[in-house]
Write a structure and sequence with these properties.
Elements (H helix, E strand, L loop, with lengths): L5 H8 L10 E24 L11 H7 L3 E18 L11 H18 L3 E7 L16 H9 L9 H11 L5 E6 L8 H9 L3 E8 L1 H4 L5 E6 L6 E6 L1 H24 L3 E6 L4 H12 L4
Parallel strand pairs: 2-3, 2-4, 4-5, 5-8
Antiparallel strand pairs: 1-2, 6-7
Length: 291
């Protein structure tokens, strides 16, 4: 079954992702660099200065106002887009499962990047980085991306600290890093987010969550089992305990959101309860400098 229907693909084809110039590679591609060059896109007109290339003089402007000016251009460069997708066991929760929604979002980011001739790699992770895809950069590569996402199997625990540490070692080229995860890990993500930013990466965290992440429905005497570690805990679930849990989840998400903001990135919420066509528009609007 296709991850993206025709309506989603048509929406993505109308958009472009603006990747910050410092994260673009030096290869020709679709990202506009702030470097002025004999590129493909007109950037601005400025007053002529001694030493400027006479071939860049705008003679049409001179004929109109009798003053010399030169035309400058933006060089187009391609970008590396890394999509890190959480495949830990907690991603099996929710209806639809968080991992199913994550697959669709990763496919969307991939389709969008391939459509503008960027370099795309998908990197699954749980306790650490798993086997990544090859580098894709042609629209014809999209079926291979979908096939890879369809083979992802959830399992294990999340350690974003180890994931980030391994990622910066294995993928030294800077780029736009999109992390798709439910954030269901007790550890603070601040140091990991800073480590990615310090390597020059542009960062966006897309938090995929379901209703039970925020508001579990169970009450009374129950035995809980951690879906990732299989540890069990017998507790009496009271409103006070649930209130403390909700506050901890809220604080964890907001700490991560603030960490992303300080690193020059952003955290975007993606609820599995929202129809995907609506969710896609919301995530793209919130996560990408798209046009």
């Amino acid at each position: 079954m296709a991850l993206l229907d025709g309506a989603a693909q048509r929406l993505l084809e109308r958009l472009r992702v603006r990747v910050r110039p410092k994260t673009a590679s030096t290869d020709p591609g679709a990202q506009r660099s702030r470097v002025r060059a004999n590129g493909l896109e007109f950037a601005e007109r400025r007053e002529y200065a001694p030493g400027d290339d006479a071939r860049k003089i705008d003679w049409n402007a001179f004929a109109r106002n009798r003053s010399l000016s030169v035309r400058t251009f933006e060089e187009e460069r391609d970008a590396r887009i890394y999509v890190l997708v959480d495949v830990s066991a907690s991603m099996t929760r929710g209806t639809p499962q968080k991992l199913e929604v994550a697959r669709q979002l990763v496919a969307s980011f991939g389709y969008l990047g391939l459509n503008q001739v960027d370099r795309i790699q998908v990197v699954p992770f749980a306790r650490s980085v798993q086997q990544a895809t090859e580098v894709w950069r042609r629209k014809d590569d999209y079926p291979a991306l979908e096939a890879f996402l369809g083979r992802l199997e959830p399992g294990g625990v999340t350690s974003f600290e180890q994931t980030a540490r391994t990622f910066v070692q294995q993928f030294p080229a800077r780029g736009f890093v999109i992390v798709v995860s439910d954030l269901m890990e007790t550890a603070n993500w601040d140091a990991s987010v800073r480590a990615l930013a310090q390597r020059g990466h542009q960062l966006c965290v897309v938090r995929v969550h379901c209703a039970e992440d925020h508001d579990p429905s169970f009450r009374g005497e129950i035995e809980l089992q951690d879906v990732e570690t299989s540890d069990t805990l017998r507790v009496t679930v009271t409103e006070a305990l649930l209130g403390a849990y909700r506050a901890e989840i809220r604080d964890h998400v907001e700490r991560t959101r603030e960490s992303c903001r300080r690193a020059g990135g952003r955290l975007v919420d993606a609820s599995t309860d929202v129809p995907f066509d609506q969710l896609l528009r919301q995530v793209l609007a919130d996560s990408l400098d798209a046009r």
